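Section 3.1 - Work completed
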Amino acid sequence: MSFPYRPYRPTEPGQPCNVCGHPRDREKGSGPAVQITWLEHLEASAQRACPLCLIIVLGIERCLGRESIRVLGDTDTTLKLEFNMTRTPSLHVTSFKASESVSFVISPESPLLDNSCFISWSPGHHVPSSTDSEESLGWVLDRIRECDSTHRLCTPTSEPSLPKRVIDLGTSNSQIKLRVTEENTPGRYICLSHRWAMPTQHPLRRTLSNNISSHRQGISWDGLPATFRDAIDFTRALGIRYLWIDSMCIIQDDLDDWRREGAKMASTYSNAYLTLAAAQDRGSERSMFVRMDPKFRLRPLALPESLLKDLGLSHRPHGASDYGVYVRHPLTHIVRHTHLRPTLRQPLPLLQRGWVFQERLLSPRTLYFGPEELSWECVEHHKCQCTGTRSSTHSTQTNPKKVHRPSTLQQLAAAKGLHAVANRWAGLVEEYTALDLTFESDIFPALSGLAKSYRSILGSRYCAGLWERFLHEGLLWHVAGGTMDQDHWAQARRPGLWRAPSWSWAAVKGPVEFTRCTVALQEKCEVLDANCTLAGPDPTGELLSGGYLVLRGLVVSTRLRYVDLTKGSSRSSPLTLFRLVATEPLVERFLIVTTFADINYMFDDPLPIPSGSEVACFLVGARDYPETYDFLVLKLSSASSASMASSCSSYPTYERIGLVQIQGPPHSSRTASSFITNWVKEHGEERTIKLI
């Protein structure tokens, strides 16, 4: 990335530095901010007595080496200064050309902590040499003691029951074995969250129908992958006897057992004493423990005596490092506020896995074994070894373990109504669909535990990822796309095998978004029937094909016209694939017509829906201020004529292919508003349809 170079402009006397923004306002300056500058500007500003610019220059030289920014003699020294972008105090400086970053850290005991130069610096700590060291174990035990004694939301009111099967670790010298428990057997246990290896890679140790008896007698230590052995060692070190690992505690080749135990996922993770997350995502055959790379260690930053005097301090005889000012390469941290941008990818690859999403949210406490350090996340706190407390004052909004808890959802329902809970579910789906699943058929099972939490509050039937009580709003989803989401749009396809009816967000691969609005939706159609056939006992689990909706409402018949069929066009997005002939007069009247395609047909030859094909726009709902009408774009299903001929259905059968919104300007005139209404009445025909 490059930015047009701007000549250095000296800061006017009495004004904040126009290079780094120093001094930042203590109240307003706590928010996130980004500034683009150049190394030469920092140096020039430092020479003109800006203390923060001088410190940043010194930090770059200490951590990266000044010449590393000038890669191969290139003169581009563009730098990005990021303040508080983690929603906690932090300062990171990134060189675009060198693709390197510097993190500025201050000791919590530093006398400079309250100085205006350091208000955006992260309080930092030295990190142990490895994640399995005695020091790291002590840090974890401290977190557990703190959580047990002071965190009311993290501690169960009574001792939970063990899952149906657990790995019994016995004592340190005992042979491990699979234990089948009696119902309601109390006990503490730990869960392991890990990435499954692909079948073509190292086969994962699993419990199968033909080895469950031998596993109950004993499990060979040498036959376990490194991650499992590490989890066993760490669980024993914490003094916990039982460990739950999905591949070992569910019979993997018994579909009935898998569905039955998978349906209990919510209680399995919710009742766990702790969940260990092998967050590096290196595969189970490799250790989840790491030794820290030296580049992530704190490097003391020597501050010139002249600068110390400007800061109101005198030079100490043992060196400026006594002031606890450090730099280091940034460590990998969890993104906690993904709901603000659901398509944002997590830096810890394990957290990009679909199954791990609910494992993380359902577990009251999770310990992450990251690539450099340990991180702790519970309902009330988030801490890591390098910075200590990263607990946010906006914890209800940014703490994923708290946001989706039944107690939090109950409070939300009491304060704002069930509609707000349904909206939060929509946000959850937006996050979830941006994640990766190895097996496409897991789309509902991997979310079933969270769905049960929401069902307990909404009190509504779950229909292919939507809630019957809020079905109209639930139908108004579209594939996430636009110029910033080309990768997501390229992946927008139907799954290889059927997993959901076309009206469900699960009928497409890739991230989706909902057309949520602060103004209530006016329902413009009637739901006569909603039917989904479950594949097993879990009401929030996998489906069998055949789900449908019977709807009655206004249908506008039109034709589809592709806008750009140039393969590989950078302009291709869900918004540019096709247009609807009937809406063209609306565009001419300066109304906003937004058409989202569900599937990317750009590389299909021949096109599954030829240009000029007849399609239907089915009116689902409308909103005011500005006036907006929401339609599903439907194509007649190939099953329609067959079902009509056999008298299986008296209604034409359609499949969803997109969504279209017709909207007046933000301050719609009465003329524009009435034009939309008249257009709907003129072109719409009342029909009953079946949507599959």
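Second construct:
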Amino acid sequence: MSTPGPPGTTGTPRREGEDDGTTTAPADLPATAPTAPSGTATPAAAPAPGGPTGVQGLLRSSTVMAAGTAVSRVLGLARSVVLVTAVAAVGTGADAFDVANRIPNIIYLLIAGGVLNAVLVPQIVRASRDPDGGQAFVDRLVTLVVVGLAAVTGLSLLAAPLLVRLYAGASGGDELLRLATAFALWVLPQIFFYGLYTVLGQVLNARGSFGPYMWAPVVNNVVSIAGLAVFIGLHGSADPEAGLASMTSGQVALLGGTATAGVVAQALVLLVPLRRLGFRWRPRLGVRGVGLRSAGTVALWTFAGILVSQAGYVVTTQVAVYGSQGAGSPLPEDAAAPPGPAVLGLAYLLYVLPHSLVAVSVVTALFTRLSGRISSGDEDGARADMSLGLRLLGVVSVLSAAGLVVLGGPVGVLLFGAGGGEDVGRTTAAMALGLPFYSALYLVQRGFYAREDGRRPFVGVAVAAATSAVLTVVVALTLPADLVVVGLGLSQSVGNVAGLVTALVLLRRRTGPFDGPRVLRLHVRVLLAAVVAGLAGWGASEGVQALLGGITGRTSALAVVLVAGAVVVVAYVLMLRATRVRELDDVLAQVRRRG
């Protein structure tokens, strides 16, 4: 599960069945991908000088990426169901496998995840203007990353027992720690292949080929599901109550090897589109004279942002635990436990889904175009792209926020059942108020990274995290236990607002005006449309609930979501038509084309 925090700082690699948040994700190539270079006229590693051209080109690339993300999420959910079946078949080994399989993600996140995603595209696009088309730069960059990842992976394997004890603690006993260590030896190589996936994907993105990076996790999930199916076929009759000692070395190898094989496939499948584009990697050692110093500076600031974000997450988690234990007041013996970290985590998964599907896809395509414009000195074009991105994100993210605010409760019950699902829904609605700001901040950060500026986006992340942390403490001191996680959702929303305002001010100082009045006018219109659509959706929800006698389970929740959701979308589109929001036509044209 991804951790809540300001966008652009988590950088979590795509795991089977899990949300990546921002990260940043990741088949056929999009229609706007550049053709492979021919002959010797263009060096093989030369990336395209920019991303997709025109609004429709941008939306086409974004649609390809969003489709890959959606398919991966569906398969990831299926993979999670199969995994539960497989692990349950061998008893309490589930905890050991979960601890081990999270370690490579955490290490990769802290060492390289967000850093690589932030710095590679601008550097590769800029190097494309070198006399050799960037061949030497890309060769040295990939070599440096591969060697570094190999070193980190090797050290992690040597330190596997220490890492397991660090993340699992001693509460599980020596037997669980031994089993988790055995799993870790199989899954820690994922660190190397997650990094390889990221660097190869960013080379593709820099060349304007966006689809493969987002579709590769589908291969991961398919491999994982197939391996887990084999495991169930071989060991499905095991006693669910069996102890840890019942898990054999063969079962450990099959489970751990399957998880790693999926990540290996996710990385290596990117070699196919790279070869089609004419990319040939020649290992070259040495970094002097290739301009990696600026990339290192951006990387350090990005890493600092990751640490700040994780520190904020620790504060949020501790307050959520505090709330789940009664927020300082003893709970009656017969009282249900207040919602805590689990509810907060599930709400975050729902909240970040529209961001992952839409914002990450649009910004990934736009990031390459921004980098190309800036490397060629076209600041006017870069400012126009920033305006376009903010307006397109506004149209979609405000609708998503309105839908989650109105339908958070029914969606929570639909997915997680009554009781806990209602808590998830309320918390999701609180988080959704900040969703448009979260997505916009993600774009603005890329505006800085395209200019090789890591310091200013760090300031935005720090302001967002600090604001959320302060409000989190206020929540802990003032709200009753059953409202603590809702208050945490609101704290995150306010933090996103503060972070975006800070980042926009800093970006304007750096680049000059970027069509602010036009962007503001559009957001006023979409906000008005969202209020009207939200009220209409709320009325429809109340009407359906009155007919059904309330939301009594998943069936009634589904009816409310379908009817009220349709009302929200239709009312929103009609309001945008009435207020002449031209960006709606671009979005609808792409929807009709894909339909």
